Amino acid sequence: MRKLGIVWLLVILTTLCVNAQEVVYSSLKDFVAQRGDTLTTIHVEKRAKNQITLTGGADYKISVDDSESLSRYLKKRCYLVRADSALYVNCRKLRYKKMRFGAWYAPAMLLNGNIYFSALPLGSVAAGSSANMSVMLGGQLGDAIAASGQVSKRVYYEIDIVTGKVDFVGKDKMMLLLTDHPLLRAAYLKENSVSADVTGRYLRELAALKK
């Protein structure tokens, strides 16, 4: 019965309008192979700070207004969504050193064949101890405690497109990424932050140079 339900969802996904601007991928492998399904009715909602504080998770909720089944698919089974020119990765599918990011979607970008996304700092990446508490406590309570101290903080992570491994984009990784760009590298050396605002700026610079 469960298999029939999944097949039914995929049939709906593949028979919707061919002019759709949104493409959903059920796995990283499907994304690499560009085996996606199109939708026309995806709703991308920026989550409020109080929502993140109470339940944890990433910055964006993606759903289908008129279909609870498809919304459930997007929340629990989908890996990545491309909406027009924007990319969103499902944090429910991701782990950093066995720690979870929670539910919902984080904004992402492609660079050098890998995926980079911004999310709450976890574990040793976090500035304080609140994110570590979420690992010990687990569940929604742990997420809420973590989010209360980190709700406004974001850092970047890298998803290896081959292995699916998630790694923190700190100073050392950024220096490697900037190896062939001495001017950007010199400018980055003067920065004293690994926040998403700073890291994202240099990642976007690199992405623009690749075009």
In short:
This protein is of the alpha+beta class.
Structural class: alpha+beta
The proportion of residues forming helix, as a percent range, comes to: 40-55%
Please state how the strands of the largest beta sheet are arranged side by side.
Answer: 2-1-5-6-9-10-11-12
Largest sheet: 8 strands, antiparallel
Order of helices and strands: HEHEEHEHEEEEEEHHEEHHH
Determine the N-to-C terminus distance: 46 Å
How many H/I helical runs? 9
From the alpha-carbon coordinates, what is the Rg to the nearest angstrom? 18 Å
> For the residues shown, what is the average pLDDT?
82
Strand content: 15-25%
Instruction: Report the principal-axis shape.
Output: globular
What is the tally of beta strands?
12
**Which runs of at least 5 residues are low in confidence (pLDDT < 50)?**
1-20, 128-142
Write up what this structure looks like.
- A hairpin with a 6-residue loop joins β11 and β12.
- This protein has helices at 2-15, 28-32, 49-55, 68-76, 130-137, 139-150, 171-177, 182-189, 196-210, and strands at residues 22-25, 37-39, 42-46, 60-64, 80-83, 86-90, 95-96, 99-100, 105-111, 114-119, 155-159, 166-168.
- It contains 9 helices and 12 strands.
- It is an alpha+beta fold.
- Helices cover 40% and strands 24% of the residues.
- The longest helix is centred in the last third of the chain and has 15 residues, at 196-210.
- The model is unreliable at 1-20 and 128-142 (pLDDT under 50).
- The strands form 3 sheets. An 8-stranded antiparallel beta sheet has the order 2-1-5-6-9-10-11-12. Strands 3-4 form a two-stranded antiparallel ribbon.
- The chain starts with a helix and ends with a helix.
- α3 crosses α6 and α5 runs antiparallel to α6.
